[in-house]
Design a protein that fits this description.
Elements (H helix, E strand, L loop, with lengths): L1 H14 L6 H21 L3 H18 L9 H21 L6 H19 L3 H21 L8 H20 L6 H11 L1 H16 L12 H7 L4 H24 L2 H24 L15 H12 L2 H22 L6 H25 L12 H20 L9 H19 L1 H12 L4 E6 L3 H13 L4 E7 L9 E2 L2 E5 L4 H7 L4 E4 L6 H14 L2 E4 L12 H8 L1
Helix pairs in contact: 1-6, 2-3, 2-7, 3-4, 4-7, 4-9, 5-6, 5-7, 5-11, 6-7, 7-8, 8-11, 8-12, 9-12, 9-13, 10-11, 11-12, 12-14, 14-15, 14-17, 15-16, 16-17
């Protein structure tokens, strides 16, 4: 904090920039630092800590920069106070593993400084760069394994400064009101995603919001098998994507920026939903008992009634509609055309979501979405396209036949992408995870395909599937459900030499006695675990041996 304040003061004096706002920014940052230090020393109760934060932020909200998104000044002050308290605490919550808070802070500060620099606002740019530089110096010693830690005094102060800078950044550029509203959210996307994820899942599972726990985003990634470095790098990379989106919103015209918002909302909403869904790996939502009323409401609307999925599909239909129109006009839309699109957007969204409901899209379960659902998605997209085109005759929807075709194609692809996103995120997570065990499957056939799918859904953290073995030489070198066919059982030694593994899972049913004996001998000599994947149906109505014995007796 001292380095940050010294940097902006020194540059301000040398460059002659108007730094009349520096004293109050530095003062409030130090005040928040003291609140965090007190909390680290005596472990304040959450409500006492919140009261101290509000005392400082309420003064800052009335004196410093304010959000100007609402028509009434008192409401803007209230919104500013709410934003600053949210940004301050959200940033504090991600300070759970080495290097994460500092890395996210560096990326957020640099993105804000870039926005300010592009629009010639030197004051905000210098403060953002100073904060990024101070955090970079800190991160040298906070990089895992860390020798120093940020603590509440550092995280609260940095969160407050980033909250103020994000407000100032929202005032720059040519963006429309929605784009300016999105700017602060994107600047602190990872802390906000973590806060929303933790809050919703704790409410949904009946746990207190203020209780400390190991359910933050970084904890979920480490339980997925990632190391602390991989988890921190993943979330810092996600913040870099959000920072790039924030910069893009400020450099494109306002009417074009609006067209980008559904795509951004769709991506980050999918990430949040994936992280939330990890909370129910051990127990399904419908099996949790003795929940408070608010938890039952959240689970009912979110999982049973699919209300969250419906909200997500609003952004999905809007993105498909905007994408179709942009492609139709070769990325060259006038303000009048964009306004006409926005007028027809509510009708397109209602017709699209209605088509999804009619085609049974909401009957599927995302985690277990397979190829069979693609037929339902195609039907839903075609119904939506037909409904939009027919309704354009009586509703204020301007869309040509060629654009409808593009709209249907985009809608189908977006439906597949969103419903398969959990599989994609899971595959990426396992690719980034630390592999304690490495296994291969014997049998690149129908049973092998089932084994691969089974391992995808039930395999534990830290287990990596390297590929498959099969006697059919035509399959060697090919990909089977995304995994290579490494070779046959005859060249296990060579495969082991170039791709070491710890476990062999037999899925193939037609192995001979000689092949099984060779496998057992290989696993014993190389100390490799040998397992068999079972797949079958048992007739529970058939009499058992004991039943037959009792009948005979």
């Amino acid at each position: 904090m001292a380095g940050f304040i010294a940097a902006i003061g020194f540059v301000g004096i040398l460059s002659g920039l108007p730094y009349h706002s520096l004293p109050w920014l530095a003062g409030f940052a130090v005040a928040m630092c003291m609140v965090g230090l007190l909390d680290d020393i005596v472990d304040l109760r959450p409500r006492h800590k919140l009261i101290l934060e509000l005392a400082a932020i309420c003064i800052l909200g009335g004196w410093g920069p304010q959000l100007d998104l609402l028509p009434y000044h008192p409401l803007n002050i209230a919104l500013t106070i709410f934003w600053l308290i949210t940004a301050t605490n959200a940033f504090n919550l991600i300070d759970g593993i080495d290097g994460l808070a500092a890395g996210v802070g560096i990326v957020a500060a640099l993105s804000i400084a870039t926005v300010a620099g592009l629009h010639q606002h030197e004051g905000t740019m210098v403060v953002g760069l100073a904060l990024a530089g101070a955090l970079a110096g800190f991160m040298v010693f906070n990089f895992p394994p860390a020798s120093i830690f940020m603590g509440d005094e550092g995280a609260l102060a940095v969160g407050l400064v980033l909250g103020v800078l994000s407000i100032q950044a929202s005032h720059h550029g040519e963006g429309s009101l929605p784009a300016r509203l999105a700017m602060p959210l994107l600047a602190l996307m990872v802390p906000l995603l973590d806060t929303v994820t933790v809050t919703v899942t704790r409410l949904a599972t009946g746990n207190p919001i203020s209780k400390r726990g190991l359910d933050h985003s970084h904890h979920r990634l480490t339980r997925f098998g990632m190391s602390t470095r991989s988890a921190a790098a993943t979330l810092i990379g996600l913040q870099a994507i959000a920072g790039g989106c924030a910069i893009a919103l400020t450099v494109v015209p306002g009417y074009d920026a609006v067209l980008l918002l559904p795509f951004m909302a769709l991506f980050f909403a999918l990430v949040a939903l994936f992280l939330m869904d990890r909370s129910f790996d051990g127990e399904s939502p419908g099996q949790i008992e003795h929940l408070p009323a608010i938890a039952r409401v959240i689970l009912s609307f979110g999982y049973k009634r699919r209300f969250v999925e419906l909200i997500l599909d609003v952004a999905l239909v809007a993105a498909a509609y905007f994408g179709a129109m942009v492609l139709r006009f070769d990325f060259d839309l006038s303000i009048a055309q964009v306004n006409q699109m926005l007028i027809g957007l509510p009708w397109v969204v209602m017709l699209g979501c209605g088509a999804f409901l009619l085609a049974g899209v909401y009957r599927g379960i995302w985690r277990y979405t397979g190829l069979a659902e693609s037929v339902r998605f195609a039907l839903a997209a075609m119904i939506a396209g037909l409904a939009v085109k027919l309704a354009s005759a009586i509703l204020p929807i301007t869309i040509s036949r060629a654009t409808v075709v593009v709209f249907v194609l985009l809608l189908f692809n977006f439906l597949v992408a969103t419903r398969w996103s959990f599989h994609v995120f899971q595959r990426i997570g396992r690719w980034l995870a630390h592999s304690a065990r490495r296994l291969v499957i014997v049998g690149a056939d129908a049973r092998g395909a089932v084994a691969v799918q089974h391992l995808h859904s039930t395999i534990g953290a830290g287990v990596e599937l390297l590929g498959l073995l099969d006697e059919d030489s035509f399959k060697h070198g090919k990909l089977f459900h995304g995994y290579p066919v490494l070779g046959s059982l005859d060249n296990l030694g060579a495969i082991m030499a170039r791709t070491p593994f710890d476990e062999i899972v037999i899925a193939q049913e037609t192995l001979s006695t000689t092949q099984l004996a060779a496998l057992e001998s290989f696993t014993v000599s190389h100390r490799v675990t040998l397992r068999r994947f079972w797949l079958g149906v048992t007739d529970m109505s058939a009499p058992t041996i004991s039943d037959q014995q009792l009948t005979t007796a």
